[in-house]
Model the fold of this input.
Amino acid sequence: MNPVFRAVVVFAVLWTVFRIGGRRTLAEITTFDFILLLVIGDAAQNALVGDDFSITTSAMVIVTMILLELGLDRVAMRSKTFRRLLDSGPVIVVDNGKVLERALRQEGLNVDEVLAAARERQGLERLDQIKYAIVEQHGGISIIPKEKGSGIDP
Amino acid sequence: MFGVPKDELEIERADAFLQRERTAQRIGTLFLLLFVIAGAAGLFGDGPLSHVSNASQGMLLEYERFGRATDVTTLAVTVETAASDGNAVRVRMPRTFLSKVWVVETRPQDAFRGFEGDAAVFQVDAADGRARFELLYKPNRFGVLRAVVQPENGTASELRQLIFF
Done:
């Protein structure tokens, strides 16, 4: 099969599978996730080049995949709907110290991960110190702490 | 003096879209699961649903119903014969079938005897009333692969394989 066609098909399969699987950033993957990614890369490589190890084929595959990625980015820049389709949107999982269980579950996270992010990013100790915890488009967790003495300003 | 509430979080909420996305993810996950189950069952080759034993009068064809392009698959042909041990048994299959595959190996190695017209001829010595050979090959295209296998004295049988890429 033509290497360009292979690259398009493998790109589509990888994008679809990872889009279905949900979002996690490199910062949050475990050691096993990392190893799994290496294995997936190896499996994809076999599908991309088959028995053909020529530089020409490698170049065709690499360039095709880069162009596909650039093309998607360009379209996403121009279209909000397409951007959401590609990357989803930010999701609030903690609101004023209260865990939004359903949102958290749907993002495939647990409270421990939110607390870990709170400790790492803001040095917070407890849930009630968190004003908002948001799962961003890129999969990372943003923590907005409650301000000291927060409440109504006189 | 009146109190001023703190600023609300400026964030794009697309709850309806997120709900649709969740549904799509659940459906997508189900498809992925079905894909894996189908693969394990042999619907893409190498599994219980894939193996075929096609028996006609005097001949048995064993092969994989589903295969993958560039992956080795095996066709085993067993012919029941009245020939004495050591006598040759010939089997013919279409030349066009061999043009659609890369032959990796024949067992025994000298089973393939060449072409006669539009047929490829295989010849094996009989032993204990049977003659058997195996053809290991890699399909070189997708789609349906067909071949009518004809023993010299017996009923033909058809091989039909669906080849995935």
In short: Residues 149-154 of chain A have pLDDT under 50 and may be disordered.
